[in-house]
Structure formats: C-alpha cells, structure tokens
Design brief:
The protein is built from 8 helices and 11 strands. The protein has 225 residues and is α/β, with parallel strands linked by helices. The strands form 3 sheets. Strands 2-1-3-4-5 form a 5-stranded parallel sheet, with helices on both faces. It starts with a strand and ends with a strand.
C-alpha cells in the first residue's frame, strides 16, 4: 500500500511502477483512507509519505507497526538526519528521500521482505492448531489449509492464540475481553464483535476460505480447525 497525497506521484508513477516490478500495489491519499482500506484488506508492505494532509506519517508508521509482521518504508522530501532517525526509531524499516526511482524503491521493498522472511527456527505452530489451520511466526500469521497466508493484527493474534489454546472449547466473552486488554471494563464488547467480523471477512477475502471461528450465543467464541 502506497500512502502518498501527491496524486500524480502516487497514481502515475509509484503504484503502476511497483505493479510493473511485480508487486500487488494499491494507493491512498491520506491516513484516514489507509485505515478504511485496512478494514477491507490486509497488506504486507507499506510506503508512507511523512507529509500527509490529516496525520503525520510518523504517527501512521507507529500505528502500522502495531499490526506486526509488516514492512514499512518511509518516502519523504524531508531528508535531514533528525527526521531519518525519528522515522527509523519510530518503526520504519527503511527511509528514502524524494525524488526516488521506482526501481530503487522496489529494490528496497524486496530487501525489507528478505529481512522479514522467517528462518525455520522461528516458525512455531500454535499448541493446539491442527488439521490445516495453523498460526506461525509466533502467532502473527495465520495459514489456511490450502497454504494461504494472512498477516494478523495484534488484536487478531491475541484472539486466535487464546482460542487455539482452548482446544475447541468455547471461551467466554469476559475471558476474551480480559485477554485482549487486561481489564474488560476498558474494552467495548462491540469492538470484540467487530474484531471477529473483520477477521472472518479478511480471511475469506485473502485466503478464499471460511475461517472456522464460531460464535456461541450467550457464551463466547471457539475455534474449530
């Protein structure tokens, strides 16, 4: 996902250029448009401009880093050392100054992807995941029976890890809320239902398979792989 408010740079150069380099690329012009897009689809790599109209690119990078398992490249016209340090310390994997050639940007993205690739020793299935569905990369990635990979946000990871550990037993909603935030009074129950809804939709969209996450009315949720 390219987050850049310069329409010509985004739509005529970066997005088509990255597609030409083999990336499945989309583009948005603001932080709000990015957050809306993330409700519909997951992305593994982000190119983020600092000077967005509604939110600092530095803030966007901090939010994206919470997703886990993603690569982030900051692309900006502000090339001074202080901003570079701030961007890298804030969660960016690379910091590039404009103007930039698409080939250099694509090579940087591929470099970040190589660093993100897990070694065999870091891949750990969830204790009770079985018969196809499994969690890998310490729970940050869900793998479907067909091998499709879905990157998980922090909340999705916590939810699926808890349900997988329950070995097919329904987990009460109050227990899930406490697991998600430590204090269920601080977490709106409607947010849990939205989290479940968005996770099901994301898995269906990206993996083409229905996630076996079942809602038990009046009790909570369970995972039946």
């Amino acid at each position: 996902m390219v987050v850049e408010d310069d329409d010509e740079l985004r739509d005529r150069i970066l997005v088509p250029g990255l597609r030409g380099e083999g990336f499945d690329a989309d583009g948005v012009d603001s932080a709000m448009a990015l957050y809306r897009a993330l409700n519909l689809r997951s992305y593994g790599m982000f190119v983020v401009d600092i000077g967005l109209p509604d939110e600092s690119g530095f803030a966007v990078v901090r939010h994206l880093r919470e997703l886990g398992g993603v690569g982030i490249v900051m692309l900006t016209g502000r090339a001074d050392e202080e901003d570079r340090v701030r961007g890298l310390d804030g969660g960016a994997d690379a910091y590039l100054a404009k103007p930039i050639g698409v080939n250099v940007l694509a090579a940087t993205l591929r470099s970040v992807l190589r660093r993100m690739a897990p070694d065999a020793s870091t891949v750990e299935p969830a204790p009770h995941a079985s018969s196809g569905w499994r969690l890998e990369q310490q729970g940050w990635q869900l793998v479907s029976p067909s091998g499709s990979q879905v990157a998980l946000s922090k909340g999705e990871r916590l939810l699926l890890t808890l349900l997988a550990d329950s070995a097919g037993t329904a987990v009460e909603k109050e227990t899930i809320l406490q697991h998600l935030c430590g204090n269920d009074d601080d977490f709106d129950p409607h947010r849990l239902e939205m989290l479940v809804h968005r996770l099901r939709r994301k898995v269906q969209t990206l993996a083409g398979e229905e996630l076996p996450l079942v809602t038990v009315r009046g009790v909570g949720h369970l995972f039946l792989p």
